[in-house]
C-alpha cells in the first residue's frame, strides 16, 4: 500500500521506516510541527508539587524530558498516567511506568480505577498549547487540584494544498494515517474542495472512535480504528486492512 504519513517529522520518519519494513511504500508529509513550549521553565516547580502526572501525548513527554535533561533534573517518584499507548511508551523510554487505558481517549483515562479517588491530590497535566479540557474538568470535579504545563507548541508549516494533493495523487496514495483530530482538521483545510471526493475515498486509519466519528461526519467512507496513535498501532491496523 502507499500510505500518507502526516504526523510531525521525527515521528513520521520512524513511522515511514516501520511501514517500509512491512512492505508498504509510504509517503511522508508532516502537516504539523512541534517546538518546545513556553511554559517549560515552570515544569520543575510544578513537578515538585505534584502527586500525579498525566501526559496527553508523546510530544508532551519528549519535550518535558528534554528540558529536565538540559537543566540537570529528574522525574520525581510519583504516579504517572498516559492517555494512550504512545504516551505510555514515551514514558517507558525514559524509565517511567505509566498507567494507560485500553481505550486511548480522555474518557478511557478517566475511567481508570486509580483516578476515581483523587480528592486533594495535586495533578499536573502535560500537554501542548490548547486542547480538550475534559480531563482537567473531570478530575477537578472529583476534588483534585489540577494544573497544566504546555511542554510543547504546535505550528503549521505553510503548504500549498492544491500542489500537495496533485503530488499525492500522482504518487498513488491509497491510505492516510491520521493520529489526531487536529491533524484531520488540518488535512481537510489543506485539500481543495474539488479534491475532497478523492480524499474521502482513501482508506483512513485513525487512533480512536472520537476521531473516527469526526472523519465520518466530514465524509470519509473507509475508516479503520487503530489501537492508539503509536506507530506500531497504525502499522498493525494497516496490515489488517491489507489482508482483508
Could you give a quick summary of the protein structure above?
InterPro entries: 4pyrrol_syn_uPrphyn_synt_sf, 4pyrrol_synth_uPrphyn_synth, UROS/Hem4. With 244 residues, the chain is of the alpha/beta class.
Overview of this protein structure:
It is a single chain. Helices cover 43% and strands 19% of the residues. It contains eleven helices and ten strands. The strands form two sheets. Strands 2-1-8-9-10 form a five-stranded parallel β-sheet, sandwiched between helices. A five-stranded mixed β-sheet has the order 3-7-6-4-5. Helix 10 links the parallel strand 9 (203-206) and strand 10. The two termini are 13 Å apart.
Judging from the principal axes of the Cα atoms, what is the shape?
A: elongated
* CA-atom Rg in angstroms: 19 Å
Number of helices: 11
Which sequence of strands runs across the widest sheet? 2-1-8-9-10
Name the helix and strand elements from N-terminus to C-terminus, one letter apiece. EHEEHEHEHHEHEHEHHEHEH
Number of strands: 10
| Poorly predicted ranges | none
Average pLDDT works out at 92
How much strand content do the residues show?
15-25%
Could you say which structural class the secondary elements and strand pairing correspond to? alpha/beta
Helix content: 40-55%
**N- to C-terminal separation?**
13 Å
* Major β-sheet profile: 5 strands, parallel
Enzyme class: lyase
Catalytic activity: hydroxymethylbilane = uroporphyrinogen III + H2O
EC number: 4.2.1.75
Function: Catalyzes cyclization of the linear tetrapyrrole, hydroxymethylbilane, to the macrocyclic uroporphyrinogen III.
